[in-house]
Amino acid sequence: MPKFDEHGLIPAVTSDYLSGELLMVAFMNAESLTKTLQLGEAVYWSRSRKELWHKGSTSGQIQKIVEIRIDCDQDCLWLRVDQLGVGACHTGHRSCFYRTISPGEEHPLIIAG
Question: Which pLDDT score, from 0 to 100, does residue 102 have?
Answer without folding.
Answer: 78
